[in-house]
Structures are given as structure tokens and as C-alpha cells.
Amino acid sequence: MSEISLLPRDKVLRDPVHNYIHVTYQVILDLINTSEFQRLRRIKQLGASSYTFHGAEHSRFTHSVGVYEITRQICDNFARNYPSTNGSTELWDDHERLVAMCAALLHDIGHGPYSHTFEHIFNTDHEAITREILTSPDTEVNHVLRQVSPEFPEEVASVIGKTYPNPQVVQMISSQIDADRMDYLLRDAYHTGTKYGMFDLTRILRVMRPYRNGIAFEANGMHAVEDYIVCRFQMYQQVYFHPVSRAMEVILNKLLHRAKFLYEHGQLTGDQKPTLLIPFLENDFTLSDYLHLDDGVLTTYFTLWRDHPDDILRDLVSRFLDRRPLKSVRFTPETRSLIPELKQIIEEAGFNPDYYTAINDSYDLPYDAYDPSSKEPKTQIEIIEQDGTLEELSTVSPIVAAISGKSTGDERFFFPREMVKPTSDLQLFEPLYEKFQKYLRNDSLINPHEV
Amino acid sequence: MSEISLLPRDKVLRDPVHNYIHVTYQVILDLINTSEFQRLRRIKQLGASSYTFHGAEHSRFTHSVGVYEITRQICDNFARNYPSTNGSTELWDDHERLVAMCAALLHDIGHGPYSHTFEHIFNTDHEAITREILTSPDTEVNHVLRQVSPEFPEEVASVIGKTYPNPQVVQMISSQIDADRMDYLLRDAYHTGTKYGMFDLTRILRVMRPYRNGIAFEANGMHAVEDYIVCRFQMYQQVYFHPVSRAMEVILNKLLHRAKFLYEHGQLTGDQKPTLLIPFLENDFTLSDYLHLDDGVLTTYFTLWRDHPDDILRDLVSRFLDRRPLKSVRFTPETRSLIPELKQIIEEAGFNPDYYTAINDSYDLPYDAYDPSSKEPKTQIEIIEQDGTLEELSTVSPIVAAISGKSTGDERFFFPREMVKPTSDLQLFEPLYEKFQKYLRNDSLINPHEV
Amino acid sequence: MSEISLLPRDKVLRDPVHNYIHVTYQVILDLINTSEFQRLRRIKQLGASSYTFHGAEHSRFTHSVGVYEITRQICDNFARNYPSTNGSTELWDDHERLVAMCAALLHDIGHGPYSHTFEHIFNTDHEAITREILTSPDTEVNHVLRQVSPEFPEEVASVIGKTYPNPQVVQMISSQIDADRMDYLLRDAYHTGTKYGMFDLTRILRVMRPYRNGIAFEANGMHAVEDYIVCRFQMYQQVYFHPVSRAMEVILNKLLHRAKFLYEHGQLTGDQKPTLLIPFLENDFTLSDYLHLDDGVLTTYFTLWRDHPDDILRDLVSRFLDRRPLKSVRFTPETRSLIPELKQIIEEAGFNPDYYTAINDSYDLPYDAYDPSSKEPKTQIEIIEQDGTLEELSTVSPIVAAISGKSTGDERFFFPREMVKPTSDLQLFEPLYEKFQKYLRNDSLINPHEV
Amino acid sequence: MSEISLLPRDKVLRDPVHNYIHVTYQVILDLINTSEFQRLRRIKQLGASSYTFHGAEHSRFTHSVGVYEITRQICDNFARNYPSTNGSTELWDDHERLVAMCAALLHDIGHGPYSHTFEHIFNTDHEAITREILTSPDTEVNHVLRQVSPEFPEEVASVIGKTYPNPQVVQMISSQIDADRMDYLLRDAYHTGTKYGMFDLTRILRVMRPYRNGIAFEANGMHAVEDYIVCRFQMYQQVYFHPVSRAMEVILNKLLHRAKFLYEHGQLTGDQKPTLLIPFLENDFTLSDYLHLDDGVLTTYFTLWRDHPDDILRDLVSRFLDRRPLKSVRFTPETRSLIPELKQIIEEAGFNPDYYTAINDSYDLPYDAYDPSSKEPKTQIEIIEQDGTLEELSTVSPIVAAISGKSTGDERFFFPREMVKPTSDLQLFEPLYEKFQKYLRNDSLINPHEV
């Protein structure tokens, strides 16, 4: 690694969550100033969640600098309290600081607008794109990283890809308690205005320590870690899996499907041609095409489609732009079999069920419940005793044991709000409406034939 | 006024600033659900300020519901403590509640993307448009308001237009201490992460009271009012007038000018035609055209113009999208005469001064320093003593007297950052660069011939 | 109940936790101004915990007004959303408001200094004294309460004693989620500076509702309730059961024992006679004697005893006043049998084990883990579904199920710090010291013979 | 200076204001553990203010560790950004760190209970006592300090006494913006629950820098400094000078006077003899006598005096312990001459004016308005420009100029509440009461003869 220039004096960015983001290296400043990184300002961190929690309008830019800042603080703490002076892999080698901080800053750089929905429809992959942004010689990010050393872009990419040899660095960025999760929980709690995500970051940073296989937590800080796990659980239950946000994502999904269908049938043309989306509709896009996308690009085309002749497309973009979510109920493996009956009633009421109903499973969402016994076990959280003994967290915390391995999501069936709140037009089919009600109780699907 | 339906139970929206927004009337819920109001989600409250304070990405939607909530709380307080039972105009008639709350919610509904810059270039007027949205029979907002009574849309519009007969209602929405300013100061402070805007809302609400000519503040709460004035002063100085935000607005202004120029010369066509902006470029737009605009529409066209053949347009959109602000220095009436010399150097360095320099005066910005002695005096802040005597705030507060009538802005000259941080290419003109430096000291323009 | 005078306008007390305490009735104001209530200013809420968390110096006065305020807010919410107009016991009868608020304010009025330790040694009983303060005709509190009605003192006492007929009122003040616990968790968290106690009070208040048998919580607020239970669990683990606070309480206990012993042997006389404690040392005290006690009275006598000729008393008061806590280790039923060996070593080192060792069991402390299956089951927390079905919380919350019925305390053996941190004098017995170490590992007692 | 032992790892104390207090040196830990320092836990920071703001019960202990922590952070910042490597007195010599931190920690160690009132009556001097605690060979504090070097106690004392040669160190602890004031403003705001004291500590620490004559503030942080000055002004106006707190201090003053009078007349004997106060009543006390005092010692004797035969003493201790403040009105130089008339009415109503009236001037209180033009000018606040130019704050800040040199206090006349809120007994003298009212309007004394 070539000589890295420390800034003569820290630069700071004012941040509502961490108060200040401290930029100490020129390379970090240069990365922030790249076109690819600035683009993250135009992509919301939480996608459709701001339809449920109106304050949650923050971008991936703010989250990314926050992850960087937490990583910087971890490095500072490790360098002061656990410095490796003799190359011991038990302790922290501060030469790893820069690769850790760059990986932290750039870990989300491949994200596009409403990633989960967009990727599903257009077969994009934000992880592959992250890697490409880092390693392709054409990006500004790569240009900055190469100034550190020719191998540096690959090193940073390997931290994000979890193949970097030093597990301490990898776990700082991606593990059960990493800088990424800690920042997003705090930041999303701050902007949504919920209090569930407010764990004690300072205390967790104090009890983190490096060890041979990564990062462990001192026993006397066990409860702060436990509290973090509970916060995460609550945020998923209360915020990330909120049925209204999922309902809005369902609409987005359906409208992009409809747009694709119409494009394939030659019906997205003229002023309604989505120029910047064509490469994706054609399934033939370059990195540059991808970097032209952001939330505003999608909503601009949706706005144009408000006047499209297709009834379904026009209706769906209006439901999305004007926030008219679908309604939903929980179902279980037992009640799942009732869904075709519901779809039939909905169709009778005049809604195409392909576009106006959906089942959506919050297990699909990227919930990362801490579960050391799962098939693909993630890194365990290790508690380290005074004498160096390690214990996996759920063996010492009954609360965490209670959550571990339990899925916290629910399966829901989505349908038009009109089925339960009929408007004047819909009163025509009132018997249909009454029939539909019989399937619903206490936010759940029930079998009306058994009651 | 027809019967107004109270909701059987409050609905709440989670809000990071007020914790919860309480919706108690069906009409308020219906207004929030209109297409015109939902559109405010896509327009940032602070425009270019998020380039300086990255957390400040909140929309006009969040501010608008916040202004509504503060107004609701004022009404609750007035109704409980100062009810007019005999028609006394000294006290509060709670029949005014609904018109006040609707005006609060809708006061910003006519705003478009980056209003101040956009209006300047395209001759739009958000106040006129607000009025049109309320009173035009074609909008969803008007449709909801008319359900209260046929005159209700005009009444709400007259509160916003300050012609409504009851001054208590008008001052609640627009005066030196109104629900609008109180919400934006708190909200902008919350999202920027600065602490300057954090005055004591609860205390101010407690000491507000109606009187014949509007709203006054009890003497024992004078210091809370004083603190609010200082917060406002600090927020203007520190946040709203920040030179970097103004520099980004200058770029936006210049790039829209360039786009207009190119359009007029037939050079914004094909894939780079800004369909949704055409009515404004043609200076012939409808309300519906206006309601199609949002921040994303602008940045989508800017993204398309990244590939435009015009060097200046291409460069300016990149400076805007990639956040590369101009630099600036303060100047005074004395040093203003040096600006032509600077422009000449800048032109020699290869920048067209029409597009790469600007003078920008923060006096132009909507700063509303409390100044009872100005030519167009705004409503004074009245302090009310135990025995009912009124005293204008600045006569009892030396701090407020110190701020009153003092302009807090500064005049700045903006120029390309390359003039002070030359890149490799620019080193070619190094003597120019040295010459330029001589004009700058301590963030101010100086006369190098005199030093 | 006679006519109760509402204050013409609310009085407020500034409060760091609830922002303002709103006093709306004259009787509440009068109760706050009684001598018995003002005395709570001189008694710390958390006793010895401020030795561990230095910010936790707040008094029972602040907590008591906080419990009142939460109760007032619950009543407001019930009166607005669930008013009983026809005498239905499902809903809330607002005539109960005053008895509820008075009981809330006065529920802790019988507490004395360092209650748990003091009561143990002097056979006082703060619950009996609370009742006496309310119902004895000699107190100012009784005088104020009687102005409401002759039966009112007994009614308030019966709410605190849980025999009042309306279970809604009783559960407001004492149940698994009551105004008392909610205030102390928030307040203790605020003053200790820990974040564990910060649950979402506003949301819990919103989802509380009356029903026939007391108070239930709406299903859509289940997670806020769950979060409260976890906060409570964390506060007990992290704050209330902290080993250093318990070590200081052990010292207090031992020094009061020693003082009692010396008094009984005629050795607390002259300037060192604890005049205000004599009635308790004589086991013959009046209510008036009790009301003369406060934290300062105890520490004043301790200060006088700094010069007492008895070595043990002198040493113990100095350890208490100068904060020199005992050390401790956890033990289990298995390792308990090793304690006599440890005591013998300690005695060999020169410490009287009767005064310098203790076993202390945090199960003894008033931890009120939510446990519907215990022998003395407390009120269950009931979750109420949309259709009125009730479900006990732990049947719907895996987190709460994990905590329920699990004791969270630990048993500890306390001993002089000198045994592990020898001072110069103690190095004389260094082999003893080494022997002692062998019993300790990872904060636990181990069997050195087995290792 | 001998070798100083850094702790192998930071110890932390949880703090509600600074989150954690970081103890990095053994000597700091040892000082905190001295008997003299632990005694500060038993002395309230704000004395009688907790009678007005009930949350303000925090002790001088918490403030003292807070001042230490801010000083530690300043030193860290100076050491990182302005290290003196060549002995330059423009920059920071980190060898000064320990003396600065010790002085910060110990600056208030000489305070006794209710210092301002106590000192006035008993001629004690907390500054002289601070010096004695540091330099007397008999104290634990001196013992710890001597372990650094024989001269160290004197050095620390000279920092507190402002005679230490390095002005940077002196100004860190005592100047217009020092660690002392910054901690108490933040801490008192936190515990009172007011928001006026909440300035931006982090930003101020960032813009502080050493220069030859002390400490200056960078021009770009001018507004944070300005905001601090306004906070200070507001806290004095709203909290420190609150008339109710001053009324309680007047009572304390009067009751100590009465006790002194009775002692001198042989009437404080037997069980009511204030053993620990005798040396002060005799005006012959040792340092040890002084170190035995705390808030609880005073209130314990007051409790004993509740049964004293002297009517005035008994009444005054009850007013103090039971919080029954005097009332007050503002007067001016013009209306001052009316006070004898008021006193006469009060005497006619049965109150001895020597014990039941007072004039109290908040100018006497230690308000330190920033005033460079005063006769005894304090250190100025210097703003440092990019090119090193210094400017005194009030020359660049109109807000500060408005406050500078203006006294913010008021003169008040205190009298028994019974004069304006007659109880049943007092209704006997109703005409007196009516006559008294005529002197009062809008919280001010007026001349009833002129109206």
C-alpha cells in the first residue's frame, strides 16, 4: 500500500445521527465526491417505507457516510486499546483501517432505486454492480481507489464480498452486529421517529474487541448486545415489515410488470417512452445505464404514464404516486387454500387479480434474525469472558434465545382497498362485498365455511 | 358551515418532530390523501440545502403535516383556556378551528421543485398556484373542501392570503411566530442535525393567547419568545444562507438558463427533450402541467443532459448532480467594483462568466427578520402583561432589539472552484491563479492594489 | 363526593421527563404543598444506586409527581375515547379521575430513607405508614383529602392497597404496566443516563383501554408493550441489581446493625447520640418520628460517627460516606458450600465476617418479572383484539415468554475489596491473598479443589 | 513531573450529559476516590433551585466530573490538531494535560452546603478552602497530588487561582467560555428540563484553539459561540435568578441568622444543639470541621428545630423544609423608597420585618455577563480569522454586543405570601391586605399615591 495522505485537519460533515462524520483521509473525501457516490443522494434508503413513516425520506448517501463513521470509530477504539505490535492476529493491525473504512463507505454503492422490486423484475444484482463500480477502470470510484495501490480496488471489493483474509475487517462491515446494521437501525429509527431502534451504540463500541476469528463482545457488555438484537427485532416487526409499505411495494412491482408487458407489446412509445429504462426493458444494459437510474427517474416515467391509454397502468401509477395502498390480511399454511376463493370474488368485482392481488411473504425480505442453528449460519455473536472463553450469545441470553431461529415475518394476501371500503361505484356489487368480509377477522384470513 | 365529521377516534401519523400528528377530522384525512397533497412528498423542503447538510432530505409533505399539528395544538389550547362563549372577539371562537387547520395543512401546496430558482426562471408563482389548487373546481383538494361548504375553499384561501377577517386565524398561519415558522425551524434543525433551531415549542404554545387584534404572548413567557427569535436568526445565518447551498442554487439557476437558451435554439430535442418542462419553456402551462413537476422530474432531465453535445449544459448538470459547488467570497459595497476584474480573470481561465459567475445576495432570500420599523412592517410580536397592557417585543428584549432591522445576510461573488484549487489542466494558467488569489482574504473580497 | 375545585387555569411544574406536570385541581396542588409530600424531596428515589450511576440523585418527590402526570394523561385519554355514559363498567367513568390521581401522587408517601435496608433493620413498613399518613387525622395530607369528602382518604388508601372496587383505577396505579413503573423506568433511565429504560410511553398510552376487569392493550400496540417489558428487564439487570449498588447497601445494612449493637450496649451517647433515630433503636416510634427521617439525617449521624471509638462502626461509616464498596462474586447452589471456606480466609486476614461479608440475593429485591404462572400471580397483561378477544401477553409474544417466570437476579457473596486489591498493610498476608484468588473466576465463585 | 501512570485501559463513568466520563489516568481515579471529593455527592449543585425546578437535584460531584471530561476533550483536540513540537507557546504542550485535568476536577472541591448563603453568614470562603484542601498535607487529595510531584499540589492550586503561567491552561478552567461554565449550563439545563442551556458543545470544542495568550475561537464557529452566550444569558434569567429560588435562599439566610442569634443567647442546646455547626457558630473552625458539612447536616438540624420553642426559628425552618417561599416584587431605584411603607404594613400584620422581608439583588449573584468594557474586565472572547487576526466577540456579533455590559438581574423585595394570599387567621387584618395590594402591579412595586 502506497503512502496515504492524511488530511492536515479533519473535515466534518454535520450528521443528525452521529452529530459529525469525521473525514480524516483524502481518499475518503475523494470517494465521497465521486459521481457514483453522489448518486446515492437520489435513492431513498427505505424505499416505500416513507409512505408509512413520512419522516423516513433519507437517502442511501446519509446511511453510507454513517457506516463509514461507525467503522472509523471502531478502528480508533481497536487501535487505542488492542493494537497489534507484533503481528499477532489476536489483535488489531491498524494498517487495515483504510480498507475497512473504504469498504464501509462503498458497501451500498451498487444499489439502485427501490432495489428489491427493481432487481426482481429487471434481473439486476446490486452486489455484482457494487463490485463492478469498484473494479471497473471506467468509474471515478475505481480511479480514486487505484491511487492507494493497484490492488486496492480488489481488496475493498473482497471485504464487501467477504473473501478478504482478515475476518476482523470483514465482520466490521458484515456480520450480525456490524457498522452497516448499527447505522441503519439508528438512522431509520431517527427518521421514522420510532424509538425501537435506539440501542446504546457507544456502549457496544466500548465492548467490541478483536480476536483471532473476528470480533467478539466483552461479557460485561452482554446486555447492550442483547438490547441491540431486540431493537433489530422490533424494527423489522414494526417498520421494515409494515403491511402498508409492503402494499406499496406490491403496487410498484405490478406497475413495472405492466409497463414491461406494454413495452413488449409496443405500447410505451412517444412521449411515454421511458428512455432511461429502455436498456433494462431490453435486458441489455451497461454500468453507465445503471448509474443513470434513481428514484426520480422512475417517478418521472410514472408521471408521464398518468396519461397512458392503458387502464391498468394508469390506475397503478396513480395508486403509487398518490399513495393508495392495497389492503392485506395475514394467512397461515392452513388458510392459504382460501386465497383462490378470494381472488375469484375480487375478479367478479372487476379487478384483474394478476395486477390487483398478491401474496407477499416477509420471509423473503432481507431479515437477518440471529440464528446460529440455521442451514446457512451467519457469523455468530461471541461473548468473551474475562479469561478469554467464548460463548455464543444465545446460550447466555434467554431473550436472544427466544428470538433466534424464529421467523418474525408474516405472510399476507393483498387486495384492493375497495373490497372493504366500497366507493359509490362499488356499491353495485354489495353482496360480493359482504361475502368478502366473511373471510376477514382480526387482521387474519379465516375460513367462513367453518365459523 | 355544514356539519363536519369528527373521526370516531383520532388517527395518528408517526412524526419525528412532534412524535405524532393527530388527525381528528375526516376532512383533514381526505385532504392528506389528495393527489395534490401527496405530490409534496416528491419536493424537498430545503431544496439545495441537503447538499450542505446531508440529513436535510425531508419533503414539503412532512413540513405541511407538522404545521397542521402545531395549529391543532394552538386551537386546543385556545379552546380550553380562552373560549369565547359570548362572541367576544377578545377570545377564541372554536368554530374557526377547521378553517385554521385546513389553511395550515395547505399553505405550501402550490410549491414546486426548487421553487425560488424555478419561479425566477419560468415566471411561476407558488402563491397564485396555491390559491388555484384550493379554488379551482378540478382539483381533489377543492373537491374535499367543498364538502364542508361551498364557501369553504375561498375561506381557506383567504386565510393563506391574509384577507380572512379574523386576525387570530391569520396570525396562527402567518405572522412573526406562526405554526409555519415554528415547524420549519424545529424540523430543519432536526434533519440538518444542527441544534440552533431547538426552541421550546411547548412553552411558547402555553404562553400564546388570543386577543382582539390577533395573538399575543404572556409576559412570563417573554424569554421563550426571545429564544425563538434568536433560533430563527441562527438558522438563517447557519443553515438557510449557507454559501455552499447558495452555490448549488446558482448552478441550478445557470443550468436552467442554459437549457432555456438551448431550447429556444432548437437544441433540446429527441431523447433529450424535457417533455414535462415544455409547457414552462413555452411559457404556456396549465395547473395540471404544474402538478406534474417534482424534484425527480428536474433531475431526470439533467441526467439525460449528461450526454448533451453542449459543453456548458453538460458541465453544469454534472456539477449539480455530482455536487461540485462554486466557491464564493463576501463583498461589500466598496469591494463590489472589483468584480469585473475578477470576471475577466475567470474568463481568461476559460470560463464563460455568464454561466460560471454570479453575485448572490442573501437579502433576496425570504428572510423575515423581525423588524417593526421596516417599510413593510410585519405583524409585531406583542407581549401582554398581567393587567392586559401590550408591549412590542423589541422594546422589552435587548436581544431582539439587537437583531431587529439588522439584515443578517451577506452578498457573495461566486466563481468556479478551479480558480482556487487548480486541477492538473488548470496549472497551465498558474500566473492567472496567483493573480486571482490576491483578491481573497478571510472569506472576503479585498482590493489587491491597496494592500 | 363534594364539589371539587378545578383550577381556573392549569399550573405547571417543569419536569425533565414529561416536560411539564399539569396540575388541574386545587386538591392536587394542596397535596403537593403538604409537609409530608415535600419531605420526599429529601429521600433519593434509588438509594445507593447513585454510587454506581452518579447522575441518579433524583428524589421520590420527582417520581411521585411523574406518576401523577402519567395517571392524568391516562384519565384524559380514557375520558376522550372510552367515556362511560350509561354506567357501563366496560368503559371509563370520569368521576374516578380524582381518586386515581391522588392515589398516584401519594402512592410512595410512606417511604423513608433507604427504605429496603432501613425497614429490614428497624421493622418499619412503608405501606402501613402510607396508609397512616392518608388516614390519620393529624397529617396535612389527610386534612387536604378530607376536603373532598369524609370518605375520600379511605378511598385513596384503598386504591393504593388494591382493595378499591374499580379494577381500572387500581391497575392504573399498580399492575404490570402502571403509571408507577412507567414513570420510574423512564426517570431512572433519564438520570442514570442509560438508554435501556426508554420505551415509547406515548404509544403505550394510546393503546391502553379500559375493559370490565381493568386495563387492556390493543393488539396493534403489542410491540410497544413488549418493548416496555424488555426495558424493565434490562433496567433490573443493568441498573437496579448492579453489584456495586448492592455492595453499598450491604455496608449500610452492616453499619446500622453495628450502630444498633452499640446503642444496645450504651455506646452511642453524647455528641454521637442519634437523637432522631432513638425511637427506632428503641423500637417505639410515632408517625411524627418517622416523618422526621430523611437521607440527610442518616448521613449526618454517620458523619458524627466518623470519630466514634468503635473500630468497626468508624470503618463502616467511612466506607459508606466515602464510597468504598465491597467486592463480590456470583455463586450457585453448587458453589454456595464454599462460602464458609472463604469467610475463614477473610477472618484470618483480619476482617470480622459478620460485618465484612454478606450473601445477597437479588431475588429478594422487588423485581416484578411478568409471570402469570407464578404462585402469587400478578395482574396479567391482556392484549385485546379488534373483535374484543383477550389474550395474555406471553402467549402472543415469544420475547415476553422468554423472560416470564425466569428470575433475572443472581446470588452474590460480598467481601472486602482488600482481599483482591491488597494495600501495603495487607501484603503481610500475601499467601492468604493468593489462596483467596483461586476461588474466583469470570466474576464467579469456583471450586479451587476441582480445577 | 514524575512519571504518571496511564491506566492500562480507560475506565468510564456513565454520565447523563456526556454519556461517559473517560478516566485515563490513575491519579484522576484516585482523586475521585478521596473522601474530600466523595463529599461533593452530598452537596447540591444548585442549592435552592431545586425548589423551583424539581429535577435539579444533582450534586457538585456530577458537575465536577463533567468539567473534568470537557477539559479532557479539549486537551485531546489540542493535542491532535495543535501540538507544540518545538516549544512554541502558540500551540499546545501536552505536558500540561494533567495539571489542567486535575484543576478541572477539583475546582469546586472547597464548596460547602448552600455556599453563597452559608459563606455570607459564617465568613467561610470556598476559594481559600479549595486551596487548603489541595495544599494541606492532611488531606487525601493532597496525598494523591503529591504522588505526581512535590510541586504538583501548588501547580494545580495556581491554575484554579489563575496564577499559573500558561494562560491556555488557566482559560480552559476559568474564562468566559470554559469547561466549568459549559458543563454547568448543559447539566443544569438537563436536570431542570429547560432547553435554554442546550448549546452545541461539540461544535465549540471543534473551533477552540490555543494561541499565545490563551484560547481563541475560529471565525467559522462564531455563531456557536454566540449561541453559547445567549444560552448563558437565558439560563441566568430563567433559572439562576428565578424569584422563587431566591425567596427560598432568603428564608435560609434568615433562619441561619435566627439560629446564630439564639445560639449567642444560649438557646440552642440539648437535643437541639447543632454539634457539627458549633465551630462555625463559634467562628473557630478547622478544615476537618468544614469537611464534615453537607446539605443533610443543615436539614437535620432544621428538622430538630421544628420543635424549638422559638416561634420565629420554628416557623422559618418549616417554611424552608416544607417549601413555602416568600413572595416578591421587582423594584427600581425610583420605587425603592416605598419599601419602608411596605415593611410597616407587614409589621402591622404581625411579621417581624427583620426576619420576614428582604431585598435581594440578583446583581450580587455570580452572574458573569460577558463585558469587555467593565471595570474588572474578564478575559475577552477572541475570534480568530483565517489569517490569524483576532477580533473581540462583541465587535463582530450584534447579539453579544446587545447583551454585553447589560446587567440582567433585577432587584426584588421579598415578603410573606400571607400578605397577598391571606389565610383564615389573616383575614382579621383585611384592610391592611387591601392597602398592601395597591403597591403591586405586573410583578412590580408601584407608587399607590401616584396612580
TrEMBL record, chains A, B, C, D:
Q: Which domain of life is it from?
A: Bacteria
Question: What Gene3D superfamilies does the annotation carry?
Answer: Hypothetical protein af1432
Q: Where is the HD/PDEase domain?
A: 56-194
Q: What PANTHER family does the entry give?
A: DEOXYNUCLEOSIDE TRIPHOSPHATE TRIPHOSPHOHYDROLASE (PTHR11373), DEOXYNUCLEOSIDE TRIPHOSPHATE TRIPHOSPHOHYDROLASE SAMHD1 (PTHR11373:SF4)
Protein name as it appears in the record: HD domain-containing protein
Taxonomic source organism:
Lapidilactobacillus gannanensis
